């Protein structure tokens, strides 16, 4: 709609960077339809004067408007949430007595379980997919309501969502945003699309004992992401669920109940013991391979706890009579003038080409052969390697332990035969749910850890960490995640109680981000998430815990 001189207008910032004016006094969905052809993917939401808005929002005053399509993180998140809501609604229509659980990511999709008798079959998954497509054709609206907390809890009591009742008793809110679809009311803790008609791209795939809900491909939103089963990753999630049963809970609400009853210290001790037991088992696996293993590689994404894991693994190996020698990949960086550049023309230290692979492999072979080798030290001030007389020689049957993001990549240690390497993938894969319909994103676990660590030890505020996070994630996609299944074993560094500890550290940092800043959207989302947790005193965390790497006072190193 063109703007007349007397009308208030909105400045729409288009993907090209061009700004066009449209008349205000309309719903965002109406405006989105006018400009959709200028976007590479369907529009899911908008930023209006830097405030995240649903497409059902009515813009009645001037402002700056930026639409978010499925190629943006927030746009994709809203699509995924809305599709999950549709899945739950369709499953309740077909299986009204079943318990529906949204578990965790798997590949580029979402693993879910429908617990019922008899158990779910592949034929029923096909029926469910058809029901969802039928509801998409009907274009049912997601109706947004603001309810008082008592009214919301009564609504969920009638729906049979006892897990939400347990959670919401700890929320310090007067009002709660609830959505309805058909006859079902639910809350998935975030904004939604206008209706089911927007959810045309998805697929379901049977994956015993549940199914995978496939989302649109991030590179081609008109098609679903191809499914990569990732059996090792799936198994580590199942192990985490088993640990949840040992601890006696799987949702935040039940954990809050236990903390309120004073059982927090017991939960910490059990969670840490489960970690120690798994690390000891990994050390035993390496020991059983004997002199066959000459290199232990520890890889994982940012803030996964690789450093503390490596120290704890070393301790367990020492118990078994093995003395691993640590080698730092940082010392093998190429001179800064040869460092590759990223898409923004900045130095990219996360590319494997940032490492002098030829020299590194030469030194590996010489060390394994029993030779004495002078190891370089990288000077981060001059941007060059230096040799300061640091010489090492390995004892007989003494393996090297190498920690870094490229540990799973064969190019890093190509001179050493694969059977002589033991590869470990470390990541924080929490199996804890906010409630049974709302999972905790593993990337948020690591982001919160990094926000706390960067503030305490690296002089970076929360805003800087959040701003840098998309670049970190791109590097992980490029260098790490596609190699996960190459690991000999995976270690889940997530601690079920850690958000209750991180809460006290992270909240003040996130609250400092001003509302007009771009990073405020993520800060607000993380603050809403942390508000679900009853806090736990960091004094309960043992000094050798992986969590100490982020909150401080680790027994393994001084920062």
**CATH fold category name of the largest domain:** Rossmann fold
The top-level CATH class of the largest domain is Alpha Beta
N- to C-terminal separation?
A: 58 Å
Q: Spatial order of the strands in the main sheet?
A: 2-1-7-4-5
* Strand portion: 15-25%
Specify the structural class: alpha+beta
Instruction: State mean pLDDT (0 to 100 scale).
Output: 93
When the domains are counted, the total is 4
> Helicity level, as a percent range?
25-40%
Helix count? 15
Global outline: globular
- Runs in which pLDDT lies below 50 for 5 or more consecutive residues are none
Which value, in Å, is the CA radius of gyration?
A: 25 Å
Could you characterize what this model shows?
The protein is of the alpha+beta class. It folds into four domains: 61 residues, Ubiquitin-like (UB roll) (Roll), CATH 3.10.20.30; 155 residues, Threonyl-trna Synthetase, Chain A, domain 2 (Threonyl-tRNA Synthetase, Chain A, domain 2), CATH 3.30.980; 245 residues, Rossmann fold, CATH 3.40.50; 72 residues, no CATH class. The chain contains 15 helices and 25 strands. Helix 4 runs antiparallel to helix 5. The longest helix is centred in the middle third of the chain and has 26 residues. The radius of gyration is 25 Å and the shape is globular.
